[in-house]
Design goal:
The complex is a heterodimer.
Chain A lengths: L8 H5 L8 E4 L9 H10 L4 E4 L11 H5 L3 E6 L6 H8 L4 E4 L2 H13 L3 E4 L13 E4 L2 E7 L3 E12 L4 E2 L8 H7 E12 L18 E4 L16
Parallel strand pairs in A: 1-2, 1-8, 2-3, 3-4, 8-10, 10-11
Antiparallel strand pairs in A: 5-7, 6-7, 8-9
Helix pairs in contact in A: 5-6
Chain B lengths: L4 H9 L7 E4 L3 H4 L11 E4 L3 E4 L22 E7 L2 H9 L5 E4 L3 E3 L4 E2 L2 E2 L3 E2 L5 H7 L2 E5 L3 E3 L6 E3 L1 E2 L14 E3 L3 E4 L9 E5 L5 H6 L6 E2 L1 H5 L1
Parallel strand pairs in B: 1-2, 1-5, 5-10, 6-13, 10-14, 16-17
Antiparallel strand pairs in B: 2-3, 3-4, 6-7, 8-9, 11-12, 14-15, 15-16
Helix pairs in contact in B: 3-4
The chains are: A alpha/beta, B alpha/beta.
Amino acid sequence: MSKKVYPDAVAALAGVLRDDMTIMAGGFGLCGIPENLIAAIKLSGVKGLTVISNNAGVDGFGLGQLLETKQVAKMVSSYVGENKLFAQQYLSGELELEFNPQGTLAERIRAGGAGIPAFFTKTGVGTLVAEGKELRQFDGETYVMESWLRADLAIVKAWKGDTEGNLIYRKTARNFNPMMAMAGKITVAEVEQLVNVGTIDPDHVHTPGIFVQRIIEGSHEKRIEQRTTRKRD
Amino acid sequence: MAWTRDEMAARAAKELRDGFYVNLGIGIPTLVANYIPAGMHVTLQSENGMLGMGPFPFEGEEDADLINAGKQTITELPYSSYFSSADSFAMIRGGHIDLSVLGAMQVAANGDLANWMIPGKMVKGMGGAMDLVAGVKKVVVVMEHCAVDKKTGALEPKLLKACNLPLTGTRVVDLVVTDLGVFSIDKHGHGKPTLIELAPGVTLEEIKSKTEAEFDVAESLFAA
C-alpha cells in the first residue's frame, strides 16, 4: 500500500491539526466539499482556525458545522449568503471576514501553489477591495496588486483518486479543489473511489499526485442546495 | 404598462449575438436563457466551472455534482466543458466572455455599479461580480427601476448621479434595462445616459420622476 493512503479522515488528519492554523477547503456551495475531512476537523476540536473557502457552507452542513462549534476565527471567502449563523457571528464581531472577489480568490490560491507571490488584476479597482493595495498602470489601464494565499493544510474532494494521489474531479465539483491541492503545505484529499495505480488514464489526471500527501476514500451525502427541476412534456 | 420580469429578460436577450459566450447572473438575468432566439447559438458560462450550461434536469435526474453559480441543479449539453475556478475566471478576467447580464442595487450615470453590499445590513459578498464587470466585453444590468423602502413604502430611484453603496466596479455598465425603459451608458466618456426605449404605456414624465440621474432622450423616441 502506498504511504499516502489512510484508513479514514481522522487518521489522515492525525498530527496535522493544531489551533490557529490556516486551512483551505475546496468546494463551491455544497458542491465538491470534503465532507469527511470537515467532520474530522469538527471532531478534533481545534479552534482559532483561519478558513479559506469560497463559501461557508450552510447552517448545519459543510463548513457551517465548524461555525456552530466556534472553531473558526476568520473566513476568507467570496460569498456567504447562504449562512445565517455566519452573518450573526460576523455582525456580533465573533468572526473575522475577508471578502475576496471570486476570481481573485481563485487566482491568489493558484499563485500560492505556483510560487508566485503577487499578481495584478483589474478586478476590484476603485472599490473597497483595492483599498490600501498597490496600484499600477499597464497599457494605460489601472490594476491592483493581489498577493498569494497559502495554507498549512488544504482539504479537497475529488471523484476518483489513486494510491499515488492522482485525482480526477467530476463535473462542477472541481471548482476550487485543484488550486487548493497545490497551495497546501499538506494536502489531504478525500475521494469517492480510491483505485490502484494504473486504473486512471494518465492523460485524464486533473491533479497530479505530487500535490497530494494523504488520501482517503469516504462516503458522501452530497447534499443539494437548490434542487431545481423542469417538468417532462 | 411597465415591463414584467420576463419582458425585461426578453429585452436583455436582444443584446445576444450568434456565437456569443455569455454569463448570466442570479435572478432576472437567469431568465434571459429562456429568450435566446431560435437558431442562435449562444454558449452560457457558469463561473463555478462550466461552459455550455443546459436546462434544469427532469425530476429524479438531479446531480449534486452539477450545479450553476446560483447552486441550482442543471444539466450538460453535447458541447459542454468543465474546468476549475481559476480557468473559469481566466475566461472572465481575460476578456473571453462576450456579454454579462447582472442585477444591481444601484447604477450611476457614469456606469458605476453597486450590487454586493449594504454596510451594516447585508453581508453576502461579491461572488464573481467584480471579476465579471472588470473582464467581460459588454455588461448589461437588468433591475427594477426603483427600490421600495420596506418601512415607508417610498420609491427609491436606483439609476443615480452617483452610487452611495460600496461599488462593484467603476465605469463598467454599458446598458441598463429596467421595468420602465432602456438606457445606454457612456462609460468611457462624460456624457449622460441616453434613454433609448420606453416600456409600453410609460411616459417620459414618469421615468424622469423616478430617475435621479440626468439623462438624454434618443431622437428615435420623439419620432414615435
